[in-house]
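quick one before i forget lol
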Amino acid sequence: MAPADISVYGTLLSGHTHRVALLLRMLDIPYRFVDTPSAARKSAEFRALNPFGQIPVLKDGDLVLADSNAILVYLAKQYGQGTRWLPEDPVGASRVQRWLSIAAGEVKYGPGYARLYTLWHRPGDMAQAREIAFDLLRFMEAHLASVGGGWLAADHETLADLACYSYVAHAPEGRIPLEPYPAVRAWIRRVEALPGFLPMPASEIPPDPRT
């Protein structure tokens, strides 16, 4: 099936947007990127696409779809040409879904929020974000060390890896170090070695006010 005219609304520094861009690139699907900063998300035009005012949003012809993980599932089903990215067997599908839930929970509220508080000085509970992040990284380290293939949900890459990659790989931008987690760092390198990989731009970390 030939891809329709696809647009992605988001920002280059959003990990949620980046996971969608990763899959589009790995599926070799051309798309139009529409930069959508926070001010634009308050407009009536954007709220018509997503009443919550959140990015990313994907338009594929007449289809408008919000939520990054929902978009990943749609793209895998519509254009994935097989079940590699999203297995259809009950066990495989449930394992991917487990990590999509972690991406929407611990990854977002841990390293994702720590990065948000650090780079953009958003108000929030940094201590809680750090606690969640370190719990997540310990869990990922033990999991990756215990599986043979080095991927999160299968013996090959799946949506689980793309959904979790961006905020985990950029955790140091939230002052969450990755040095204690060699299996996590090896997994990051595996994702970055995938054909079509697109890096998310790095951000300069401001001085730590605690020092």
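fyi The domain at 90-192 is CATH 1.20.1050.10 (Glutathione S-transferase Yfyf (Class Pi); Chain A, domain 2).
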